[in-house]
């Protein structure tokens, strides 16, 4: 349930713009037949330049809302089906935290490249553009011209599964990670539904208000994708338990060693030292702990009405992980570690993390 | 059948590619148009008895892009 809520919020906040940046081409194609009719009556400027197809002159009567809605409805259906398939795939091929971390970091690199391409920093970043093969482009173009106006956006909306944006790919990885077809479908349904209002608003405004806004809009989306890419790389590295991930570096640098929470109870009682970590909605408290080296450690993770992804607790290096109850505690028995070892833990998305230093 | 390659420096996304390739449908005599956002080029195969390079360039300009060859 928690992952579904995260997917919905991610969609509501960033998904719409990120998807539009990647899938805008297909949307524009689905609108093209209506918009081009309008453009035929638009005067060509002295330089021979004409406004872009996506830009509709203000005041012209073009019914854009309906095809955008059809496009989004088909997209919602297609992604729900994709989520179902990915969840089913995940149940066969369960990814461990490190694999998920690698996938998430790779998604982050892709997003970073996409953002730099959109900023037009250097031609090399054009390799991050997803271009359908020429034969498919030709087929889409002819289909969109020859078919009924309702069928085109429906069909092209469904085709967006072939060009998922970076954020969508992260959600797809999340769907695989659930290892459950129904949950996978629910995650991509929630994300796509959440992304729809922003996608609709941005697409509608962009096509209405023309190229000036389109230029600013592209830069705005590029900046957003850049930030998300960096977050995704950091989350991926954290999920892999990499000591050099920015989050893990921050945990180590911001917490003086003397201030770290130490193992607390009588080792004789349970045969292992115990450490308690509270998983809250905003992360783990304390983030940095100390434990004696060369002795077994029992790490008790407590929750108290916790509903964020911190409940999906993992220790990547030991391949340990469990979905914690909303309120309760789960114990993880950690085998003896050498002195100086730092063991990282995080949520399953790599958003929140912490570390245990063995002394 | 003749072939001409244009450089179109103001292609800024994959959407431009599909838009430009539309000249295949718009201009009689254009047999095949294949654009690439990555290389910023468009290759056009055309029947020189039906259409000229200048007419193809004009069709590209009409779509809002500046071709050079």
Give the radius of gyration of chain B. Answer: 11 Å
> Strand portion of chain B, in percent?
25-35%
Gross geometry of chain B: globular
Instruction: Give the SSE string of chain B.
Output: EHHEEHE
CATH topology of chain B: Alpha-Beta Plaits
Number of domains of chain B: 1
Number of strands of chain A: 9
Number of helices of chain B: 3
Task: Report the CATH architecture of chain B.
Answer: 2-Layer Sandwich
Report strand order across the widest sheet of chain A: 3-9-8-5-6
Extended strand count of chain B:
4
Description of the structure:
The complex is a heterodimer of chains A (359) and B (69). With 359 residues, chain A is of the alpha+beta class. Chain A folds into two domains: 2-239, no CATH class; 246-358, Immunoglobulin-like. Chain A is built from ten helices and nine strands. Chain A has helices at 2-39, 65-92, 97-118, 134-146, 151-159, 166-178, 181-209, 211-239, 246-254, 267-270; strands at residues 273-280, 283-285, 288-291, 297-303, 312-315, 320-323, 328-334, 342-347, 353-358. In chain A, the strands form two sheets. A five-stranded mixed beta sheet of chain A has the order 3-9-8-5-6, covered by helices on one side. Chain A has a four-stranded mixed beta sheet with strand order 2-1-4-7. In chain A, strand 8 (342-347) and strand 9 (353-358) form a beta hairpin. Residues 36-61 of chain A have low confidence and may be disordered. With 69 residues, chain B is of the alpha+beta class. Chain B has a single domain (2-68), classed as Alpha-Beta Plaits, CATH 3.30.70.100. Chain B contains three helices and four strands, in the order E-H-H-E-E-H-E. Chain B has helices at 14-21, 23-26, 53-62; strands at residues 2-8, 30-36, 41-46, 67-68. In chain B, a hairpin with a 4-residue loop joins strand 2 (30-36) and strand 3 (41-46). The radius of gyration of chain B is 11 Å and the shape is globular. The two termini of chain B are 18 Å apart. At the A-B interface, helix 1 and helix 4 of A face helix 1 and helix 3 of B.
